[in-house]
Task: inverse folding
């Protein structure tokens, strides 16, 4: 199993551009998550999904959109990129909807908006 | 506002010593608690989870939870240079996972 994969690894965007960060998991996990991590900070939840066709906002959803058309894929869309979106983005997945929710993280995408 | 607080460090301990990492949280109804290790430039990896009051041991790691005090800690015994990393405390309630900013640990040979 590859686990959770993310593409691209690095990206530089100009202000106002758009892009999609890709995330795929091959563990048949129902739950998937997008986090951002600013330098020296913890992770903040952007969006999460409890299954195909179902998404919900996390702590910091503004400026982002997601979709979940399959169990495996959970892309994150940035519209009109802003310098405040410069961050490292992590995708994660988990199997259990219960409280014993161990999340498996992808390697991250480092995004710079200039 | 649901907060998870950690001392940012850096915490420096000699090889073989016990490293003690602390975390407090504000959401009283939080139900599950996690410690993640994150090496520089890498993604977080889960090292401990704890759900009920008391201690939970796994090898050199012991997690301690006190829900009344809203406090969770991680002890690392016989610290090794390879334990040098940032340790993130995470607190979950119904998929609302909140992370602390992390404590940077350095283990000196």
Result:
């Amino acid at each position: 199993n590859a686990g959770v994969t993310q593409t691209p690894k690095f990206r530089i965007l100009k202000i106002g551009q758009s892009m999609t960060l890709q995330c795929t998991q091959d563990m048949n996990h129902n739950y998937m998550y997008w986090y951002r991590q600013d330098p020296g900070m913890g992770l903040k939840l952007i969006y999460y999904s409890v299954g195909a066709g179902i998404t919900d906002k996390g702590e910091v959803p503004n400026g982002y959109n997601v979709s979940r058309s399959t169990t495996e894929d959970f892309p994150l869309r940035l519209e009109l990129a802003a310098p405040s979106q410069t961050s490292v983005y992590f995708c994660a997945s988990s199997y259990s909807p219960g409280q014993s929710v161990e999340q498996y993280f992808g390697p991250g995408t480092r995004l710079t908006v200039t | 506002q649901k907060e998870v607080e950690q001392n940012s460090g850096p915490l420096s301990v000699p090889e073989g010593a016990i490293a003690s990492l602390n975390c407090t949280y504000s959401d009283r109804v939080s139900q599950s608690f996690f410690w993640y290790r994150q090496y520089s430039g890498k993604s977080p990896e889960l090292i401990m989870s704890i759900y009920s009051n008391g201690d939970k041991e796994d090898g050199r790691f012991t997690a301690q939870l006190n829900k009344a005090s809203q406090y969770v800690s991680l002890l690392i015994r016989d610290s090794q240079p390879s334990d040098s990393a940032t340790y993130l405390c995470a607190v979950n309630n119904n998929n609302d996972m909140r992370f602390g900013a992390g404590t940077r640990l350095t283990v000196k040979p």
In short: Chain A touches chain B through 24 residues (CB under 8 Å). Residues 21 and 92 of chain A are 13 Å apart (CA to CA). The mean pLDDT of chain A is 92.
